[in-house]
Amino acid sequence: MSNVNISKLKAIVGDNNVIDSPSEMAKYLKGQGKPAVVVLPGNTSEVSNIVKLANEQNVKIAVGGAGVGTKGLSGGIAMVMSRMNRILEMDHLNLVAYVEPGLLHKEFLLKVGEAGLNFPPEPYEVETSSIGGCFSIGDSDSKSFEYGPTRTFLLGFEMVLPTGEILEIGNKCIKNVSGLDFIHFAVGSQGTFGIFTKLLVKLLPAQEAKRAVIGTFTSIHKANATFNTLIKRNIQPTRMNLLNASLAQNAIPGTEGQLVIIDLQGFKESGKNIANEIAAVLTLGGGTDVKIIEDEVEYDQVVNGWLKVRADLNGKPERTVEFLVGPAKMPQALTQLEALTGDLGTYPGVVVEGLLGYVCLALPEGTDKLALAAKVNRLAMSLGGNVKGLLGHKLKSEAYNDAEMWQQTVGLLQELRQQFDPKGILSPGVSLEA
Amino acid sequence: MLSQTVVNRLKEIVGEKNVVTDKVGLLTYGYDGTLLSGEALGVVSPHTTEEVVEIVKLMNEHNIKLVPRGAGTNESGGTIPTQDSVVISFTKMTKIHEIDTENFVAVVEPGVINFDLQVELEKQNCYFPPDPSSYKASTIGGNVGECSGGPKCFKYGVTRDYILGLEVVLPNGKVIQTGGRNFQSEPAYDLTRIIVGAEGTLGLVTKVFVRIIPLPRAKKTMLAIYDKVEDASQTVADIVAAGIIPTTLELMDNLLINTTEDFSHAGLPRDAGAVLIIEVDGYPEDMDPQVKTISEICNKIAKEFKIAQSAAEVDQIWTSRRCAFGSVARVRPSYGVNDITVPRSNFPKAIQGVLKVAKEYGVTIGVVAHAGDGNLHPLVLFDQRNKEEVETVHAAEKALCMMALDLDGTVSGEHGIGLVKKKYLDSEFTPAAMGAFRKIKRSFDPSNRFNPGKVFEL
Amino acid sequence: MGVLTEVYEMLNTCNKCGGCHTACKTYKLTGQETMVARGRIQLIKAVADGKLEPNQEYEDAIMSCLLCGECAVACANGVRGNELVMAARRDLKLRKGIKPFAKSFALKTLASPKRLGMGFSLFGGMGKSVLNKIDGMDYFRGIDIRNFPTAKKPFLEQVPERITVQHPKHKVGFYVGCFLNYSLDQTAHSVVKVLTKNDCDVIIPKDQVCCGLPQYAYGDFETAKKNARKTIDTFLDKYKDAEVVLSACASCASMLKHDYLKLFADEPSYLPKVELFCEKVVEFSEYMAKIGVDQSQLYNSSPVRVTYHDPCHMIRGLKVTKQPRQLLQMIPRVEFKEMFEAGRCCGAAGLIQAFYHKVSTNITDQKVQNIKDTNADLVATSCPACMLRLQGGINKAGQKQKVMHVADLMANAYKD
């Protein structure tokens, strides 16, 4: 069934790093696809040789940090980057680091912290996210308002192209407009342009203050209203999130009601006053148990609680609908949303990222995601927003009755992919059609 | 020459007055901030996306190339027309569609002048952080095309970090929208990012969704004066090491101190080796500790350090910096602006390198720099009438670019490549990277009709 | 070409940075690169280099410049766009004389007192009665014709040559200028009143002529020089007891004080006399502030809000901005309110209002809006051309503000 030449693979990476027994393979794989082999390369030239081999034999490759999605990969090669997990250089003067893609996000964060530095992008999944995965997915997160989305933190990379050719680009300059901006364009391309083998990431000085304000609300609308008050008062904290009651308990066990988490990193001197102001706004807005957290252990618990909720939601994209309307339109969006979902307070999951005007809904069992997404998109569009991502773009084009725009966009995306990967070797599970 | 049919059709599309084909008109759309010039077949100024679409279709029918243009203030030759092209000037698309401060977004047409947008935003206590020195004249469309920087990049980043979405007319005449009003509305590949900085080679931007942010509540501007340029770069390293990210760390060397003084009379000491303008912003409570740290750092090596006490003093400090480019014309009539950027740790070496190039080639070079970003603008002075000197200057500029690449830097930090720096691209990028650029260009514009020959040859 | 060779150094210094874009009103309104200093300079350079033969489009680019001088202020390179345009106009004149006919007719008319007097009365008198019969002909190219004031008799014919006061402290030569002579004679009377109230003897030579600015601005240096020589000789020879030569028209004053020097730069034998003359020239507000006004004599019954428009020749030519504001604020119960962009051109710009009226009208409309935003009752200024232009624009917009010369406001504040 498969053309994969196991012995040639073993010759490239060594016997121990090629796994083809199904039971051994399982711990590296996600999803239903049945790749022929799992391979763990140790360096760039091994990656390149594997890709060249796949080209010769016309076999597909999918890549992952610790685990690989197997959609469309039957008979193909699952490439696990976990052996390429070194920090090659930590450059304090330039505030940058060279890392390998298989390095776990949580381990990198530890090292960065020890060095007195900061790497703001949040992990997609706390335990298993790798730095390579981080930029491959390239999302924004609830800290993006202050720090910018994930792509902001990539200054360059080494990549093995779908032909096996090695491409290096970027440098330690924080400003660089030379050539076309392939550096940032590659972020979020999910392995379709190539396989990251080295990443040059930007770092920041460590945040000297960590402070959070939390509070619970009986009404999700009242909780959300406090965000608008804060924005009107010209307060932009690091993070301003709302979890509905169903999710709140997962973040902070024992929480009752809708949970508001407001994160104030780095506001060294001003943080105290701002925290007091925020606490007052939350209390006046109907919050109970409003609490300013200054203890570092407790602060980390709160943030990790949030990251866990985020990871859970990210883990089941087929069961979530995400949309954006901007912060100011959020009260209307939530009210109108209840006509589609019923009471949001007890819905399986609602996350509001207040500064970004973003909502993530975790759907109840048996929900027709696409049907709901279409309705949510109409709602969001009436408020100047849309459902997130490619699906959102498609729905938006449909709503405009503008099939041409959708075709143009998809045509362009596919042409780009085709230009880089004419044989369709990489990331077979990634669809550019929504 | 454009055929009468094409001219008539263009006039039908945009109106008689918005088509230029006379020699005088063409002359004035043939140059930009560089020494280069060219003459197009015509200049057409559309008012709407629909008109742009019609123009693109018409040009495709007749196989004529299009060169997009904003205010024409770029320093890279990005808007110089080729002989077989029509210039599409966006200066008539100047509507600010919307300013939505509560959702942190503004929607503008590409011809809106950066400064005009800032004025409108400021009324609502907001701003758009990218403000290149040309911001009083340059358009948002031009800023998008070049991915312009400005003095605030150290903390706030460049234009690409403030573009949420674009409406783009593709080379085939079709319209797409990339991104949107919000942070996360990218469709799969981040098309917005590849179009920003592509200098109009991939698509014509007809609408821009820009990210706006509230004005900082507090700001402190400081001025440090040094005997030697090297001392100033030490301060930069020390400030970063202290964990402070200032908004701005602008450096001017002795030559620039003197030429700007001639124009602005800001009171900078003419015998100083360098000055550093340092600015921090944020919440008022966070200002004093930062200013204190910075003043301790500066006082160690600076010959003089002062904190601006009034808005007037802040203005005075900035006037010098803003007029830096032009002011050198008082020494020699022409100047070449370079845009080399190196990793911050190599900044002192880059300064040394500039001095070395000046000496080796016997040219006068003044330096303004965004020191925090490692971005230097060595201004090479000459007289364009002296052909021999022009040759020397070109050689010196090449040496500067090679020096930056040797220091692991880039030939352009914020001005773009255009025609001027195209020749260095193969030295900066590997064949694989150049190949990636060509794949991207071919995907958008297989017939090479949009701003052909800019950045790289297809 | 000689003229352009002289300014070539400056032409060459323009680095095309575009810094003049914001400063230039004609660019702001048209968005056309031929209508901004950078474009005009590059065209002039092309002509100087022999790469471009002057044609109609070139002439339009050169003639549509307001000469407001804002580009020169904005230019970090120190390129003075207005001077380069002047040189280009001179070059055009030398190449082929002044064309078209209308422009040349207008300039010739201005140059001769006799023809000028006829012109004003035609425009304001007979012309008005004809135009009144045509519907919609209230405004000719943005100029408010129906309300265009005309002196019944030229001011110079209304007053004696010497007006003396009881205890003279100063002796002032009054250069009246065409507008105050033929059109706004009331303002000329105001000037005399304020001067005499402040112990000045006033000398008003009957045989004074146009200062020559309009001809100078369009490159006809010969005529300009003729008038300049006449003016200089009149004041320095016939009325040499005048301590100063005072003008209440910013444009005239700027011409007399600065441009005469340039005009005679090629006549070293006459130049010392020009220098002597130029030193004596003083603008009205500047002079009053210098000699000091007795504030106790000023009276005003009702509160009034006043704003001030800086004429181009005042702010950038003479560089006088503080004095008129000080004088205005000396008048009791005046509430002074600064307008947005007070120093930007009103659109009159000499003959521009007649020949490039669309540009000019748009510029005026913006100015009128800025005036409206101040909620002022009165607009004061220091140039009769601005006064007429502004009043026309205000009337057209249906607004109520009255435009007055600083001298008028002051004169009204004296009881008798």
Automatic annotation (TrEMBL), chain A:
Sorted UniProt keywords: FAD, Flavoprotein, Oxidoreductase, Transit peptide
Record bears the keyword Flavoprotein: yes
GO process annotations (BP): lactate catabolic process
InterPro entries: FAD-bd_oxidored_4_C (IPR004113), FAD-bd_PCMH (IPR016166), FAD-bd_PCMH-like_sf (IPR036318), FAD-bd_PCMH_sub2 (IPR016169), FAD-linked_Oxase-like_C (IPR016164), Oxid_FAD_bind_N (IPR006094)
Names of required cofactors: FAD
One example GO MF annotation: D-lactate dehydrogenase (NAD+) activity
Pfam families noted in UniProt: FAD-oxidase_C, FAD_binding_4
Record-annotated FAD-binding PCMH-type domain positions: 31-206
Cross-referenced Gene3D superfamilies: 3.30.465.10
EC number: 1.1.2.4
Enzymatic class: oxidoreductase
Endpoints of the signal sequence: none
Family statement: Belongs to the FAD-binding oxidoreductase/transferase type 4 family.
Protein name listed in UniProt: D-lactate dehydrogenase (cytochrome)
Species lineage: Bacteria, Bacillati, Bacillota, Clostridia, Eubacteriales
Automatic annotation (TrEMBL), chain B:
UniProt GO molecular function: FAD binding; oxidoreductase activity
Enzymatic class: oxidoreductase
Enzyme Commission code(s) on record: 1.-.-.-
Every FAD-binding PCMH-type domain range: 36-215
Pfam families given in the database record: FAD-oxidase_C, FAD_binding_4
Keywords: FAD, Flavoprotein, Oxidoreductase
Coiled coil (UniProt feature): none
Cofactors demanded by this protein: FAD
Family that this chain belongs to: Belongs to the FAD-binding oxidoreductase/transferase type 4 family.
Entry-linked PANTHER family: GLYCOLATE OXIDASE SUBUNIT GLCD
Name of the protein this chain belongs to: Putative FAD-linked oxidoreductase
Species of the source: Desulfosporosinus acididurans
Lineage: Bacteria, Bacillati, Bacillota, Clostridia, Eubacteriales
UniProtKB/TrEMBL annotation, chain C:
4Fe-4S ferredoxin-type domain: residues covered: 11-79
MF-aspect GO terms: 4 iron, 4 sulfur cluster binding; glycolate dehydrogenase activity; metal ion binding
Location of the Cysteine-rich domain: 172-257, 306-390
SUPFAM superfamilies assigned: alpha-helical ferredoxin (SSF46548)
Keywords tagged on the record: 4Fe-4S, Electron transport, Iron, Iron-sulfur, Metal-binding, Repeat, Transport
Reaction it catalyzes: (R)-lactate + A = pyruvate + AH2; glycolate + A = glyoxylate + AH2
Alphabetical list of Gene3D superfamilies matching this protein: Alpha-helical ferredoxin
Enzyme Commission number, as recorded: 1.1.99.14
Alphabetized InterPro entries for the sequence: 4Fe4S_Fe-S-bd, Cys_rich_dom, Glc_ox_4Fe-4S, Helical_ferredxn
Protein name per Swiss-Prot or TrEMBL: Glycolate oxidase iron-sulfur subunit
Source species of the chain: Desulfosporosinus acididurans
Upper classification of the organism: Bacteria, Bacillati, Bacillota, Clostridia, Eubacteriales
Gene that encodes it: lutA_1
